[in-house]
Amino acid sequence: MIISILGIRGILLNRRNILIMSMPIESMLLAVNLNFLVFSVSLDDMMGQSFASLVPTVAAAESAIGLAIFVITSRVRGTIVVESINSIQG
Amino acid sequence: MILSVLSSPALVSGLMVVRAKNPVHSILFPILVFCDTSGLLILLGLDFSAMISAVVHIGAIAISFLFIVMMFNIQIAEIHEEVLRYLPVSGIVGLIFWWEMFFILDNETIPLLPTHRNMTSLRYTVYAGKVRSWTNLETLGNLLYTYYSVWFLVSSLILLVAIIGAIVLTTHRTTKMKRQDVCRRNALDSRRNIMNKTISPFGHS
């Protein structure tokens, strides 16, 4: 849980480039997953675990596509500094 | 004691992801977080989820991040001087989350603050002798393959979309790629070409 809050803080405070901004997203996903699992163990419910085994699937998929998009935008733009990516056109 | 030994590097590394100057360091810290999370899951007794999260998060996600960092020549960046500009909003968001947590974690289910309640009044039944002990994998399989099989198939579709999307996004049309023109391939008459070459090896084809 605290790791997810740290991840949110990492996204908000880290504006250097998009790559470093997308890493706390992964950490946040993992922290939320851990949250699901801990609560499902403590509340004796299986729903948490069956959902928490599908969350890393989505996490890996979106990180793959996010990195592909990052590769393409950096190839198009030429820079990866976040401030200069302020127009959708291109 | 092992719990605190495992969980404190996770918190510190979660903090250090933001603050690391070197971009490779800022990938190694999430790897440390993933390792600690996997260890915590083993301590909880969820062996399957620990191994799955280790394999998926470390083996796929962190490795792809490492590849991207190696590919792009990201310089050692200086710390952004205007970090204080974003601090009020992020501080408010963090405080709201923190405040919401205390609604969820009341002391009856999960004791967060040390209370002086009589701890022996907790009744829990020891199921160990009564039921057949299932492993974590068996319990997951009991649900995922029977009742929630639709979720399982949908997640496989998500992975398929991710594979196709990643490949489609990164094929570059201007670089030379060896492709096969399918129509031309099908239009070749194999018998005519092969027979020509074998009949007249010295003449023109």
UniProtKB/TrEMBL annotation, chain A:
Coarse class of the protein's main subcellular location: membrane
Transmembrane segments: 18-39, 51-72
Domain of life: Eukaryota
Keyword Glycoprotein: no
Subcellular location, record wording: Membrane
Topological type in the membrane: Multi-pass membrane protein
Record keywords, A-Z: Membrane, NAD, Translocase, Transmembrane, Transmembrane helix, Transport
A Pfam family hit: Oxidored_q2
A GO cellular-component term linked to this record: NADH dehydrogenase complex
Entry-linked NCBIfam families: PRK05715.1-3, PRK05715.1-5
Protein name (database record): NADH dehydrogenase subunit 4L
Organism field: Aegilops tauschii subsp. strangulata
UniProtKB/TrEMBL annotation, chain B:
EC numbers: 7.1.1.2
GO molecular function terms noted in the UniProt entry: NADH dehydrogenase (ubiquinone) activity
InterPro entries in alphabetical order: NADH_UbQ/plastoQ_OxRdtase_su6 (IPR001457), Nuo/plastoQ_OxRdtase_6_NuoJ (IPR042106)
Membrane topology label: Multi-pass membrane protein
Protein name (record): NADH-ubiquinone oxidoreductase chain 6
Species assigned in the record: Aegilops tauschii subsp. strangulata
Subcellular location: Mitochondrion membrane
Catalytic reaction annotation: a ubiquinone + NADH + 5 H(+)(in) = a ubiquinol + NAD(+) + 4 H(+)(out)
